[in-house]
Design brief:
This protein has seven helices and 14 strands. Helices cover 36% and strands 25% of the residues. The relative contact order is 0.09. Strands 1, 3, 5, 6 and 7 form a five-stranded antiparallel sheet that branches. It has a three-stranded mixed sheet with strand order 2-11-8, with no helix packed on it. Strand 6 and strand 7 form a beta hairpin.
């Protein structure tokens, strides 16, 4: 009897002692939700697209950046809201103001949200659900009963007189511009006909020189991290624009990556460029502050991308018949750091 009574007291005591440690064995949870303020709009209307994540405090979460690819929708503005605590969990959200100037049914694609347990090095991913949006035209239905009033009839116009006035106006404007250019060049000590100038440097030489200047600047040492990453991204965007003739400065990161894919760039380089642009967007738009070691890593990626995609001039000699003098043939090749080359243009 005594032993049974003692066992009855020991079991509750053990449960009481281990109860504080039970939550540590639970797996941290995270949920993600995507929503819009409306799913039927007119062309050009602004839609509020929100992503809301709810997760335990033991997790680190990174929401999509303002450079995210939202399909046919253009991002007009982006806002990352301050995290809030609700029912013992953390709620973090991002808000996109988007629009499109195409009509039809378009889908906002799934968005990736990466997370990890604090202290872990590996990241995991969850996705939001896609959302279908219907975009209607502003034009009324011509088949309906109500139609626009027809404009009043106008008498025939004397187009010959109009053409003469336009020609005289263009001639006068041309003479004024020519005189202004002549006066300006005379004041600068230049001739009216431009002289032959030195050809511009290759795109990779310009980019590498700008990267070296940025590395030796005092932006990081003075705490101007946002300006450093903004300049780093602009250098790579200008290089891509000069190298592949893409309007990279006017594109979002998602649009830029899609354009580079169409140029046939190696997927390994795209997989390197994508996180580089994302990190720069986080710093520029989402107030993300990278660790000190990430500065060197991001800068090395920029140098690596330029070196592996630079356009080089390679000389190639082609054998000719003995009766004809040897002929030199030049070809432009893209040479990467591994020694692989891809022919671009032959002269």
């Amino acid at each position: 009897m005594c032993q049974a009574r003692n066992r009855g007291r020991i079991v509750p005591l053990i449960i009481f002692l281990i109860t504080p440690f039970l939550p540590s064995f639970a797996q941290p949870s995270i949920t993600a939700e995507s929503k819009v303020d409306r799913d039927q709009v007119l062309i050009g209307d602004v839609i509020v697209y929100s992503i809301v994540t709810t997760f335990d405090s033991g997790l680190e979460v990174q929401l999509p950046s303002p450079g995210a690819n939202l399909g046919m929708f253009e991002i007009r503005s982006y806002k990352l809201n301050e995290p809030q605590k609700q029912n013992g969990k953390i709620v973090e959200s991002a808000m996109f103001h988007i629009s499109t100037f195409e009509t039809g049914e378009f889908e906002i694609p799934r968005m990736d949200i990466v997370f990890r347990t604090k202290g872990d090095s590996g990241w995991s991913t969850i996705q939001t659900e896609p959302i279908l949006i219907k975009v209607a035209s502003l034009n009324p239905d011509e088949a309906g009963d109500i139609r626009d009033i027809k404009p009043p009839l106008t008498p025939p116009y004397n187009y010959r007189r109009l053409f003469l006035l336009i020609f005289a106006g263009l001639l006068t404007a041309g003479l004024v511009v020519l005189a202004a250019v002549f006066i300006k060049r005379r004041r600068e000590g230049k001739s009216l006909i431009p002289r032959r100038v030195k050809p511009p440097k290759p795109a990779h030489e310009i980019a590498l020189a700008e990267l070296e200047e940025l590395v030796h600047s005092d932006l990081l040492s003075t705490g101007q991290v946002k300006e450093y990453y903004s300049s780093l991204a602009d250098i790579i965007r200008r290089y891509i624009g000069n190298r592949y003739f893409i309007y990279a400065m006017e594109m979002t990161s998602g649009q830029l990556l899609d354009s580079i894919r169409r140029e046939g760039l190696d997927m390994q380089l795209i997989n390197v460029l994508s996180p580089f642009l994302t990190r720069c967007d986080w710093v520029k738009f989402a107030k993300y502050l990278p660790a000190v070691e990430e500065h060197q890593e991001t800068t090395d990626i920029a140098f690596q991308f330029v070196h592996q995609t630079k356009l080089m001039l390679v000389e190639e000699y082609v054998a000719e018949p003995a009766s004809a003098p040897p002929k030199e043939e030049l070809q432009f090749s893209t040479v990467n750091d591994q020694g692989n080359s891809k022919e671009e243009k032959r002269v």
